[in-house]
Specification:
The chain has about 550 residues and is mainly α. The chain contains 21 helices and no strands. The chain has two domains: about 450 residues, no CATH class; about 60 residues. About 75% of the residues lie in helices and about 0% in strands.
């Protein structure tokens, strides 16, 4: 069964709709997306390493984390999350009709409507920055320096939302035409701009951390500029005509409303954590943020890649009333997500301190900071396989234009996250236990597991997911391969001892050795148990 591939740019077939993408397997498309994402994540590591060493776990860094996380949550609504999940199925329906004029009209109207809404939201965010800061960082209200920094940075980062939302619209169109490479590589630009901001802009500010906020805004603008010309080659460059009355735009809006929670449940859980962390010791925000950055590496490399590739594929299967093809593609996505997600989560758990020490420790980021960030990383890593599964499970509903079911799952998940955060964190905070932020991270990881379970349960209940043969053998292979990986990694870690006490060169060498040996043990064991690359194709 074939999936989306890469099409030749500019082929529009005269007055008809652009030709469908050339046939290529889902695995190949996912591999292209992952390869491009890898470049971004490597640049992200460089950015995070520099950021931690320059700013440490300071008041200014905590302020930036809060100011960045709030518009980043809204980004999940108006950009890669809610908007994208609602927009892509409707776009694919119009493509199936083969009417280029109707397709262009829809993109024009959608772009105009999205721009208008996000422009207003960004303006309100800038004007209401003090109120927003007090709501999402209540612990900073009594700290004038920190509160003032949060407000100032919010007014800089909120316009970023406008540019990144338009970029996401462009990326969604390109992905629907099988052009995954360019949208996947543009985040590299974001990280490079952030690095430049720290190196060149930061020394020019009285408060150097403000350069981070300006870097976020500039990066958003440049990402849109890079992607924009690609729409012209498809004949779909929008003219920004607000289309609030356009029937298909209204369909997208209707689909978006339930997805406000469901598509951004992970970010919402992090936002809940941000609120609670604001009352903890200085540095808690930073430790949680840096842990999340490491969690995002495998999620971006594998989970987002699979989810991005599979959404347009599932929506086309649904539009063609191919129930068997839909279920088979979903089954493939879940198997691949587990194959990558289980060892990724286990690896982050086993190597939490080594990873944190190599990437972050140095300069103003101390060995104590390393241990605190590693604590939250260990707790959050438990949810990595579930986070990855959710990247596949959610699109299964959105492809059918069912946004209410994931919304129900998201609401229950947020309630569970709040309850667990209070249960795990409050006793530690009240007793002044070092590392209370670990309770927030553990709640986030467990909430992710709960969300994935709910989504899976709903799919099975509605008969949308019919497991293909071989699941028992697949899970057994993963379990045994993970056991082999654990043995190898622990033996290397035991030999090193205290990772924070050795120099950065030896830390890096030993970490690379542990990662390479662990990955080799996992892969060789899978091969020994009969798994072959052809088994992963779809």
């Amino acid at each position: 069964m074939s999936g989306p591939g890469e099409e030749k740019a500019g082929e529009t077939g005269g007055q008809g709709a652009p030709k469908p993408p050339a046939k290529a397997g889902l695995l190949r498309s996912t591999s292209v997306f992952s390869a491009m994402t890898l470049l971004s994540r490597i640049a992200g590591f460089a950015r995070d390493a520099l950021q931690s060493r320059l700013f440490g776990s300071s008041v200014a860094m905590d302020a930036f984390v809060i100011a960045y996380r709030i518009p980043n949550y809204l980004r999940r609504i108006f950009a890669e999350g809610s908007m994208q999940m609602a927009f892509v199925p409707v776009l694919n329906e119009l493509r199936e009709r083969g009417d280029q004029a109707a397709l262009k009209e829809f993109v024009d109207r959608m772009a105009g409507a999205l721009f208008s809404v996000v422009f207003v939201v960004s303006g309100i965010g800038m004007l209401a920055a003090p109120l927003i800061a007090s709501l999402f960082a209540p612990g900073a209200v009594d700290e004038p320096e920190k509160f003032g920094l949060i407000v100032d940075m919010l007014r800089i980062t909120f316009p970023y939302l406008l540019f990144i939302s338009m970029m996401a619209l462009v990326a969604s169109v390109l992905n629907s035409f099988g052009k995954f490479a360019l949208p996947a590589v543009t985040p590299v630009l974001h990280n490079l701009v952030m690095i430049a901001a720290m190196v060149w802009l930061a020394p020019r500010f009285a408060e150097p951390a403000k350069a981070l906020a300006w870097g976020v805004l500039i990066a958003g603008i440049l990402q849109l500029v890079v992607l924009w010309p690609a729409l012209g080659r498809l004949g779909l460059r929008p003219t920004f005509r607000p289309g609030f009355g356009h029937p298909d735009v209204r369909r997208v809006a209707k689909l978006m409303i339930p997805t406000l929670f469901s598509s951004s449940v992970a970010q919402l859980n992090l936002l809940v954590g941000t609120i609670f962390a604001s009352v903890l010791v200085t540095g808690s925000q930073t430790w949680l943020y840096l842990s999340d950055r490491l969690i995002e590496f495998p999620l971006g490399l594998f989970g987002v890649a699979i989810g991005t590739v599979i959404l347009p594929h599932l929506s086309r299967r649904h539009a063609a009333t191919d129930a068997d093809g839909y279920s088979a593609a979903l089954d493939w996505g879940l198997r691949l997500a587990l194959l990558a997600g289980v060892p990724a989560g286990l690896g982050l758990l086993l190597l939490a301190e080594p990873l944190t020490s190599v990437v972050y420790q140095g300069g103003k980021f101390t060995a104590h900071d390393t241990r605190m960030a590693a604590l939250s990383l260990s707790a959050m890593s438990l949810g990595v396989p579930a986070f990855m599964l959710s990247k596949v499970l959610s699109p299964a509903f959105f492809a059918r234009q069912d946004t209410k079911t994931p919304m129900r799952a998201a609401i229950w998940t947020v309630f569970a996250n709040v309850a667990m955060t209070i249960a795990f964190t409050l006793p530690l905070w009240l007793n002044d236990v070092d590392g209370a932020h670990g309770g927030i991270a553990l709640a986030t990881g467990l909430a992710g597991i709960f969300n994935a379970w709910l989504l899976w349960r709903y799919l099975r209940r509605d008969g949308l997911l019919k497991p293909q043969p071989g699941w028992g053998r697949h899970l057994l292979r993963i379990a045994i391969a993970c056991a082999a990986m654990t043995a190898v990694v622990l033996s290397i870690s035991y030999r090193v001892g205290d990772w924070t006490a050795i120099d950065i060169l030896h830390r890096t060498i030993w970490l690379l050795a542990a990662v390479a040996a662990g990955a080799a043990a996992y892969g060789v064991t899978l091969l020994a148990m009969g798994l072959r690359p052809r088994d992963l194709r779809h």
